[in-house]
């Protein structure tokens, strides 16, 4: 490996424009595709195989009229005033009529008229009319909070059987109810909900914007505030200006580490090239594959971090070879790619394996995240091994200034490694207290993990100044908190030839109404064949409450009295049920995922370090750091500790896929530092240093660049904490804190303490296994031997 990379690096150095032109052409192709295809991302997160998704798929196949997307608009009056004044009612009715005449919007009045004129023979049309007219049970309220386009949660209140008189009712104008509108009894808020003829992600461009423009007209001179649901908003890519601050910090650290603006600029160029091709390529194909808005952001996070770090490792190695061995920039570049480049290759491979482990879960949006991020990391590795030496060829000897070159090796080494040398000697001397203290501190930080709750962010936890939070609170006050998390019930007879009669449907409504924590049950109708009935259930509690989760489980139970008494099977779906299923599914597969990436990575580390202890130690250290990371993330985002520092108003559950996603990324990145730090210790051991001396010497050689790389990575991830998207906030925080703990506590302190504790035994490997394992030559021994033989022949 090292010999091949050495030759590749020298070839790129000698003929830089071939490699530079090649990568520029690739970037140009990506930009061209992006311009032609455009960008198409969504907020959809489909969970194949879950109970809620199976129900949605069945509805879409058997009853497409009930699977069209839904949206809503919440109208609020100024504090202490009412909406049902003549002027305000005229404005609201006018806006509603404008929405109903738009294409792709179901107009319940037209459907009802068609049914009355004989179109009722079309059972599908009749069902559409019934679902749209059923006076507004709650699905629109759900859309107001989550913007989900899983919009088959059709609900209504026709035939609703509330346990007591609710604090709301249909909006009555001229003695007739306005289709699709509910109003609170105190007149402070009104909820307008409507249904599309297709799913939101299938709507032509501009339809949602037309709806928003129509409802926003009510705000003109009336004092009314219109809050459209998130499903009417164009999905935004949560990337802002805050990420620039991370790059600025990275640039400063690079200049301080490399001592040259020219040298510091190269890692930034490499990283930007990598994410430009990787993230740009993801956007370019987003029109052809389903891609969530979080996917490219994750690739951007990881791509920037590893791109800068990998280039830094190679450039730093080239400069050290020039300083320490007096090599020319040409020869030093080839050797840097051959030695540090080998470590870069295997470090990148570990990250890719950790990310691709997400594929075993079988959830499409997580798989897409993993693939896009993995490709971006792979591109950064290739660019670091080819484009970087080409750029070094253009820079030439200017990579090191004449003044820096004239410094003596001893003085430069003493000056650069004074702090690191004192630190590692102290760690080695007091290794037992250091190990005990680190385990105790990280164990304490991990305590909140026991109370960690998983879910999806909702309006209840959004910041106070957001429309999602304002809408959530207004709906809760006017209609009840359960309206923010309605459930869609699909009933099917157990007998394949059976049907659900109106009497059976009515009895189902009555029985479900008696279930604990049910507020309102609304029948929506039966399909043409009479073998699928649809009902809406409004819980008493909010979408993230434990009581709502228990309600979903009670309704699904095959042995429930409702299912047995009516000989039916009840399926539960809706955005709330999907979130519940997501948390359960991810919790189930998490141990499998961790097992897969740990086993594969242990094999790679075994091949790289040729040691039994080192891979095990690396994995145990990572488990300590990741538990502490989740503990601190729980304390900040769930318990609200110091949350104001990070722009969070209210605590809430962590995203369902945070544990899996962050574990995979952190494992890969943590192994990066493990590879670069411990491979330096092994190199010292192979070249004659023994016991603690190999630990100290290897630490001195690698610590400076590893610290710089960790600071850069923390800065890049921390830049995403201050975005407006709560999902990106949580991911950015967890990754920044995780790298901070793993790099500076585990790798910089715990690793040298344990390595010094075991001494030379840390490199023990059974002889039979040593003979079986291929020699990857990460330290470059074969390369050095070949170069010495070549130099001897030339002499």
From TrEMBL:
- MF terms (GO), sorted A to Z: transmembrane transporter activity
- Give the residue ranges for region: Disordered: 138-161
Q: Where are the transmembrane segments?
A: 17-36, 244-263, 270-291, 297-315, 336-363, 369-395, 432-450, 590-609, 621-642, 654-681, 702-722, 734-758
Q: Which stretches does UniProt call biased (Low complexity)?
A: 138-153
Q: Which InterPro entries match?
A: Acrflvin-R, MMPL_dom, Mycobact_MmpL, SSD
Q: Show which residues constitute the signal peptide.
A: none
One GO location term (cellular component): plasma membrane
Localization:
Cell membrane
- Specify the SSD domain's residue ranges: 261-394
Q: Which key words tag this protein in UniProt?
A: Cell membrane, Membrane, Transmembrane, Transmembrane helix
Bilayer topology term? Multi-pass membrane protein
Main localization category: membrane
Q: Which PANTHER family match?
A: MEMBRANE PROTEIN MJ1562-RELATED, MEMBRANE PROTEIN YDFJ
Question: What is this protein's record name?
Answer: Membrane protein
Q: Could you tell me which species this protein originates from?
A: Paenibacillus abyssi
